Amino acid sequence: MYRLLSVVLALGVAASLGLAQPQALQVYDRCIDGVVYVETVLRTGLLRNEVSQGSGFLIDRRRKLVVTNYHVTQERDKILVLFPVRDLFGEIITEKQYYAENAPRLIKARFFSKARIVAQDKDKDLAILQLDQIPDSAKELPLARFDPKAQDTLHILGNPAERPLWRWAAGTQPAVGRIDDRNRLPNIAVRNSKVIMCCCAAFNGNSGGPVLNDDGEVVGIASFNGGPGGILTGAIHFAEIRDLFDSIVLHRVFSVENPTRFTLHYQVRWGEDGEWENHTIKPRTYNVHWLKGPIDQIPYIKFDASFEEGYQEKSYKLAYYTRQLGRGVNPSRDLDAMEYVFTVDKEEMKIDLLRQ
User: Fold this and answer.
1) Which region among 176-185, 257-266, 314-323 has the lowest average model confidence (pLDDT)?
2) 234: which of 168, 311, 312, 328 lies 20 to 30 Å off by Cα?
3) What is the C-alpha separation between 199 and 188, in angstroms, rounded?
4) 14 — alpha (psi -120 to 50), left (phi > 0) or beta?
């Protein structure tokens, strides 16, 4: 009796999520804790904000990195990411109202998080986000190693607009191809990218959601629809995701500000044996400097400390912040840099550099 009841409940949940087969239910239950809802504020309004809704998946739990589409984030800086919550019976809560009403508690439990873009590629419609926090239940989803076969059924997980959250959809008859300048699709921004096309009427909001094989590996992320009646879904191939992910490396970052009315000149080198590079900083501007890669090199700076005749050199060894950043994203002063500022003693006509 209890076994029959559990089967009936499982079938009921599967139907509500769009699941149509036992294999789909297994993939869903194994992977859904790594799928996220992504909301980007495009414009701030007086009464309400204009937002873009999409999906994504957790690719690196240690560094709290999530993959989504470029067209979901659009280079904005106000991005919210939400992980799914399970109820007392272990089932995913799909009602949006639950998450809206329980937002403060879910923030504390790390299911809600702010995010920033740390890598992006507009042509390939990819963006990688770094989150402030993730819940204990968050699951890292692995990238696939092999292309899907034509007879495979793929599993598309995401958050279609105007529907419950964390839905499943089937993708059939997958085919691997490439979009380039010779065969660009109408109204599709993707270019110079390897893609997977499959039969699936995915909805707006599925964008950025993982497309999985039966082993729960990510073969791509949903990006666009096409074909007669929009019956085809295009996914950005896992090789493109891996390429952008591998571009994320350690950056050592500091900035120099010139709040004065003078144009100043200085030199910077990385490491004791590095070459000095000349830099100019205009009045009331700042420069951001960074070094990429795993080798630890300390930055040095030197400059003429006097406006009087003769060269009076000052030099310092600087500190820096470290950030993980990839292709398409440069370090910023506000988010990434250890800040320094030039000062001028007007009475003695001396220049110095102070840490903010």
Assistant:
1) 176-185
2) 328
3) 17
4) alpha
